[in-house]
Amino acid sequence: MKVRAAVLEEIGRQRPYAESQPLSIGEIDLEPPGQGEVLVEVKAAGLCHSDLSVIDGNRPRQTPMALGHEASGIVRELGPGVDDLAVGDHVVMIFVPSCGHCLPCAEGRPALCEPGAAANNAGTLLSGEQRWSRDGNPVYHHMGVSVFAEHTVCSRRSLIKIDPDLPLDEAALFGCAVLTGVGAVMNTAQVRPGQSVAVVGLGGVGLNALLAANAVGASHIVAIDLNDDKLALARQLGATDTVNAGDADAVEQVRELTGGGVDYGLEMAGSVKAMDVAYRGTRRGGTTVTAGLSHPEHDFALKHVGLVAEERTIKGSYIGSCVPLRDVPRFIDLYKAGRLPVDRLLSDRIQLDDINGAFDRLADGATVRQVVVF
Hints:
CATH class of the largest domain: Alpha Beta
CATH topology of the largest domain: Quinone Oxidoreductase, Chain A, domain 1
Shape: globular
Low-confidence stretches: none
CATH architecture of the largest domain: Alpha-Beta Complex
Strand content: 25-35%
Radius of gyration: 20 Å
Helix content: 25-40%
Oligomer: single chain
Largest sheet: 7 strands, mixed
Number of helices: 13
Number of domains: 2
């Protein structure tokens, strides 16, 4: 079938993207779903910094690539072997398909699925197949889902069925921003009531982490960002204190506000500088969690003796250490109960034709979560 989609033609084009047009909007060919695959009509797709990192070259991928990894949609066709979904089901897409058989999957860590990671790196589906093409030439898949498109084919193992009563533009956020931010707090850090948290980087993921810290009863929540508007929003969403990351004494402010540093410093910006603020703002004996994806060649340096003598812990968090089949419904229930107001993070609803300019706004830090509505 012919599908209208946003295709990344070339990595590293100069901004403004509204002029350089790294994403071309047009029709490409989509094959029917194969064994264990599903055709989904995409209804809403969020713009994430991980997409931006592919566009600007911080996360190099093959091109041309049908971009996008955070979305919701409706099942329209089932491939052979798919018997636990039905046409018309509402689903959220997950950007790492889990095979269910490798060692990480067997350990209950599907975010680290080895075949899933290999397929994503190769720009294919979990099966190793490609369903996109243009003029007879292959177009790569992005994270197994490629959701900046009116329809997409993905592995059944990339889909989580959800209740149809959740608006699909809100449901899209649960595929990445909510899983990553909320999961980092509840699963990776396991923040307990009365503990203190600093969130460095207030994009969609960071603000979800802030909501989660508030939901679990953190006593101090320090929000840190360069953008004063986002700091103001953070205060509305439950931050007890805010610090502008551009202040020369930002770390000292955090330590003073929390009596020597926070129990958990959360880096959510994908920046080594942000990681440094999160680490130095964490108290002796505390834990620093990073969910941001920086350039693969960037290193984070620290004093070894401090790691030992202060009994520090540093933890990575990918997809919030989530088990999506368990956590997507759980987080949706928290949202419905009013404890995770993720709808307040939905900045704008846009059309697919506006996507290049929308990535300019994301790069400028002028928005939280923009969603393409189909």
